[in-house]
């Protein structure tokens, strides 16, 4: 067993060595040296006998130099530098010194360089370093991390050849598994305990890994995944590593246009490698849940540092899987393109594309007559995303650099059934029209056509009827549908005829396949239930209107009936001017109540 505090040679030196601080270091002050070895510009005056006895390399160099000047030798590219060489020489002279986690990797590489094997003496420096690694370092997660971090300053070829780094990586992963098992047995698995207890179970060692270089950290995380370390522990390690290694990136860099024209610095290149590596290490199992704030933070870093396209697409894919849980602030990603919009609209558009693909895949997987399309989780998520995008549109609408094409693309990408009412969309369009007063009449009409006037609430209709920024055609349509709504409210009609017509249109054709029939019925079912949701909103509004109208009629007495009659006739006259445009709008929205 090797002592952790000291290590001494089995042979005693013929004289007590003394060190001095001069340029030429003399191991023995009282015995004249017969060989000078230069390491990294530092000269050591030594004796041949103890060196050739333990070092195969020095023995060969002395043998090859016979007949010439053998009193001066130079060791090039010595691992660990002259300080490690001094420790190796102490071992040759039998002097006591301490082997620690800080110097054991350097000593092991130096011993390999000097060929200090068992061939020349038992318990030579290679053997002593190996015993310390196996019996002390590899038994401790913390010491394995310390040794692995010191390998960063050593020649990679030597470290890999003698398998110090791989041994430390496997030891870290194995000890992490042991800690996980002990923690699970003692605390009955952290997943079933409080959040504070769960954090205590994984936080004590994830901080240690943040000192590693990214390639060593990658090897440790991969080994942990192979050995079955919990995903939440791996995610915690990734998050802590990102926080400690990427904290130098400031938010002000997002808004600096000069960055896009300059080449990345060496620090930015290193940070880009870190981002790409961390993304590649994220767990792929569905049970793991990476915080959305961390995913968005990594996405912003990837965009700013110019990470590879696969890296950014992977982050976007992961975010799109839970887009319904995203907050508005998360979507407000600054744009780095000079002269472009203030926010990265293209990234949000890609998130929506991935999200809609996920919804479509879920509906395909749920194929079966017993499933319900509208009640599925996909449709509920779609409604939440619809509200989120409407809020996002309203937030970016004042941007004077936001093009109409990108604004319209974000509106059109969502299907009609993603919005129960269009109040949020109307608000966003109104803000855009106010901020972009230079739009032509045709562009205003193109934008306003995306709003379904039948899906506006009473308050939105009242605002639209008095909105000077809207095209006249849309104002007429709003008044026309308000007239229909008012007539239905007075006559007590609830639109049963329209519902019956749609139900009858959903009868499957005999020429269609069973799968096509089911898909058609499912779409009809989703549209009908969506109409029910809209009708509930309408019913709530009509009840409020009825209470208001009754109060007005009671206050005005008999004047109330005359007022309602004149109002109905006046709206009827205005509806005449809707002409063909109103008919087309009603036809395009025939699936709406």
UniProtKB/TrEMBL annotation:
<dbReference type="GO" id="GO:0012505">
    <property type="term" value="C:endomembrane system"/>
</dbReference>
<feature type="domain" description="NPH3">
    <location>
        <begin position="203"/>
        <end position="485"/>
    </location>
</feature>
<dbReference type="InterPro" id="IPR027356">
    <property type="entry name" value="NPH3_dom"/>
</dbReference>
<dbReference type="InterPro" id="IPR011333">
    <property type="entry name" value="SKP1/BTB/POZ_sf"/>
</dbReference>
<dbReference type="Pfam" id="PF00651">
    <property type="entry name" value="BTB"/>
</dbReference>
<comment type="similarity">
    <text>Belongs to the NPH3 family.</text>
</comment>
<dbReference type="InterPro" id="IPR000210">
    <property type="entry name" value="BTB/POZ_dom"/>
</dbReference>
<dbReference type="InterPro" id="IPR043454">
    <property type="entry name" value="NPH3/RPT2-like"/>
</dbReference>
<dbReference type="GO" id="GO:0016567">
    <property type="term" value="P:protein ubiquitination"/>
</dbReference>
<comment type="pathway">
    <text>Protein modification; protein ubiquitination.</text>
</comment>
<protein>
    <recommendedName>
        <fullName>BTB/POZ domain-containing protein</fullName>
    </recommendedName>
</protein>
<dbReference type="Pfam" id="PF03000">
    <property type="entry name" value="NPH3"/>
</dbReference>
<feature type="coiled-coil region">
    <location>
        <begin position="518"/>
        <end position="545"/>
    </location>
</feature>
<keyword id="KW-0833">Ubl conjugation pathway</keyword>
<feature type="domain" description="BTB">
    <location>
        <begin position="33"/>
        <end position="101"/>
    </location>
</feature>
<keyword id="KW-0175">Coiled coil</keyword>
């Amino acid at each position: 067993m090797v002592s952790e505090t000291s290590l001494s040679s089995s042979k005693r030196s013929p004289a007590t060595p003394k060190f001095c601080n001069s340029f030429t270091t003399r191991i023995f002050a009282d015995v004249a040296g017969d060989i000078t070895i230069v390491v990294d510009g530092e000269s050591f005056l030594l004796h041949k006998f103890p060196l050739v006895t333990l070092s195969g390399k020095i023995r060969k160099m002395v043998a090859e130099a016979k007949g010439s000047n053998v009193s001066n030798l130079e060791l090039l590219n010595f691992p660990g530098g002259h300080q490690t060489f001094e420790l190796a020489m102490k071992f040759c002279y039998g002097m006591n010194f301490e082997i620690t986690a800080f110097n054991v990797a350097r000593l092991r590489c130096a011993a390999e360089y000097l060929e200090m094997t068992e061939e020349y003496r038992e318990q030579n420096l290679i053997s002593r370093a190996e015993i310390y690694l196996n019996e002390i370092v590899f038994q401790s997660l913390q010491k394995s991390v310390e040794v692995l971090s010191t390998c960063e300053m050593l020649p990679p070829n030597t470290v890999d050849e003698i398998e110090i780094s791989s041994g430390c990586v496997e030891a870290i992963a194995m000890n992490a598994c042991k800690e996980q098992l002990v923690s699970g047995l003692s605390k009955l698995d952290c997943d079933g305990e409080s959040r504070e207890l769960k954090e205590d179970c994984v936080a004590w060692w994830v901080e240690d890994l943040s000192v590693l270089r990214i390639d060593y950290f990658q090897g440790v995380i991969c080994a942990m995944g192979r050995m079955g370390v919990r995903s939440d522990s791996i995610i915690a390690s990734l998050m802590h590593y990102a926080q400690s290694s990427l904290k130098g990136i400031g938010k002000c860099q997002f808004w600096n246009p000069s960055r896009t024209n300059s080449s990345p610095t060496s620090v930015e290149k290193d940070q880009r490698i870190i981002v790409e590596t961390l993304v590649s290490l994220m767990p792929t199992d569905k049970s793991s849940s990476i915080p959305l704030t961390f995913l968005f933070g990594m996405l912003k870093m990837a965009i700013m540092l110019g990470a590879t396209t696969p890296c950014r697409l992977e982050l976007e894919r992961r975010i799109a899987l839970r887009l319904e849980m995203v907050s508005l602030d998360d979507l407000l990603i600054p744009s780095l393109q000079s002269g472009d919009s203030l926010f990265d609209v293209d990234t949000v558009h890609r998130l929506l594309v991935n999200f809609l693909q996920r919804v479509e895949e879920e509906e395909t997987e749920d194929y079966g007559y017993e499933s319900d399309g509208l009640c599925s989780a996909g449709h509920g998520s779609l409604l939440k995303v619809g509200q989120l995008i409407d809020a996002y549109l309203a937030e970016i609408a004042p941007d004077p650099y936001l093009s109409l094409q990108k604004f319209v693309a974000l509106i059109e990408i969502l299907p009609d059934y993603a919005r129960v009412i269009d109040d949020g969309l109307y608000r966003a369009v109104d803000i855009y029209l106010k901020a972009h007063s230079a739009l032509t009449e045709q562009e205003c009409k193109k934008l306003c056509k995306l709003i379904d006037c039948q899906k506006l609430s009473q308050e939105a209709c009242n605002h639209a009827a008095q909105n000077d920024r809207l095209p006249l055609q849309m104002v007429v349509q709003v008044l026309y549908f308000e007239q229909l709504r008012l007539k239905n409210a007075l006559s007590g009609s609830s639109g049963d005829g329209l519902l019956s017509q749609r139900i009858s249109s959903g009868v499957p054709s005999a020429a269609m396949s069973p799968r096509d029939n089911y898909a058609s019925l499912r779409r009809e079912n989703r549209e009908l239930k969506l109409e029910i949701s809209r009708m509930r909103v309408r019913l709530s509004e009509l009840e409020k209107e009825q209470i208001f109208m009754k109060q007005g009629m009671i206050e005005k007495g008999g004047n109330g009936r005359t007022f309602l009659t004149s109002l109905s006739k006046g709206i009827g006259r205005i509806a005449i001017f809707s002409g063909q445009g109103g008919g087309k709008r009603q036809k395009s929205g025939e699936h709406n109540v």
